[in-house]
Amino acid sequence: MAESLTGIAASKGIAIAKAFVLEQPDMDIQRKTTDDSQEEIGRFNEAVKKSKNELLAIKEKTYKEMGEDKAEIFSAHLLVLEDPEIVDGVSSKISEENVNAEFAMKEISDTFVAMFESMENEYMKERAADIRDVSKRVLLHLLGMENTNLALIDEETVVIAEDLTPSDTAQLNLEYIRGFATDIGGRTSHSAIMARSMEIPAVVGTKNVTSTVKTGDLVIIDGMEGEVVLHPDDNTIAAFKERLEEFNKQKQEWAKLINEPSVTTDDHRVELAANIGTPGDMEGVLSNGAEGIGLYRTEFLYMGRDELPTEEEQFEAYKEVLSRMEGRPVVIRTLDIGGDKELPYLNLPKELNPFLGFRAIRLCLEETDMFKTQLRALLRASAFGNLKIMFPMVASVEEVRQAKKILEAVKEDLIKEGIDVSEKVEVGIMVEIPSTAVAADIFAKEVDFFSIGTNDLIQYTMAADRMSEKVAHLYQPYHPAILRLIKNVIDAAHKEGKWAGMCGEMAGEETAVPLLLGLGLDEFSMSATSVLPARSQLRKISRSEAEKLANEAIQLSTADEVEELVSSKGFILS
Fold first, then answer.
1. Domain segments of the chain as ranges
2. For the whole model, what pTM was predicted?
3. Active-site amino acid positions
4. Fold assignment, 37-143
5. What is the mean pLDDT of the chain?
């Protein structure tokens, strides 16, 4: 009898095949006392060496099959094996406590995994999976055990697992593996990102798919609705095959829009941009027809290392992105570190509530040497494209003025040095604090543009941490209060002749697109894979109808009512 499990739709598509349940190796690690700590350290170093060689091979394979951006995931894994806090930490624990290498490795890695999992930011939370993946690889070598090789699967299969590490995902043989489902994970986990890149359906976070499905069971993975169907009957299979055919036709239609403008039926044009974290993400930006980059998160240049990136390193990264966009706008956010993103080498103070503490622009305005180095690199790169600089976590006009003053001083220094700097660098702020959204009319006089960061704006406005199980239901992007704040920001920008964009996850959601269009948003920035579906949706609706929808929505009482309104008006087309 058919039954279904619900999870998170991580990668669109439908797969129908027999299940292969990925069993986790039983690593029973006990604390043992050793008489020769140097021998244990030697065993550990040898396991690290073997793991590095394996990761280099996986990285090369991934580069050839999936491109540079996905291969960079394994650069991050290699950095874990070079992180002195982890590697030296294990060696120190072995020698100081006279314990076996396996126990020391597990203790140190568990500490770091717990630290990352406790972070609020979804991206950082998922980085715990990187450490878990690398740690498992080292432990298997120490224990003399082998990992399951998914590359050996030679029949049509959907993979069922507690979680799929990036290493697991990179092994997937796309000739046979049709999709996967996991107990844990989110849309920003590496396995989900890679699934979207490989264009195979994936459902994550089902909680109990591994305990419900057995190897050989017939399973349907519905990556559109986030559903796993077990033991489907003939009628269910036929219905899903029909949906799959419709989806494939839809993808063919989307592909035709790569070089088309983002324009509504009544000829109103907006800009659909992409969010990136590294220059390696550029392939996805260009292959999906993004008209700009609405958010380049520069903090990834600073992470996974033991010292600040140099001006030259930053310049080369910014230059590459600007050059490849060939004059299309690129919004680069200055360093957004603190809160959930720590840099061990900065020795930042421990805070009771780091999310409301010393972070982002607040940190940069105090650590001015670090800030000036980044601004120098940005302004030097501005000669190679259409750069727009954005300051994050702005709460006061004083912060904007101070940051602009530093930027102007850096620009003057570069000009004195005879270095080319573009004269057309717009300066904007990320609107993610409610007070800034409320006082947007004041800020609009100080900047060239706004970019609304809905991920934090919603959390701060609703006083609800979306990663907290008990209050996650209050994280409501379509709450009328949120829509009113967004409208206030857009209206304030337009009154001063400025433009307003959005770089939070909300910008690419089907329900949000018509609402944001109706509220007057000029630029929608999203994950690259969302650009073509959003363009397709925009080209089938009119701005005038969207305005009526938005005006009606902000008068409603609840988020559910807003979502029902959008659905009832036929704006969600897929």
1. 3-23+148-235, 37-143, 254-568
2. 0.72
3. 190, 503
4. Enzyme I; Chain A, domain 2 (1.10.274)
5. 89
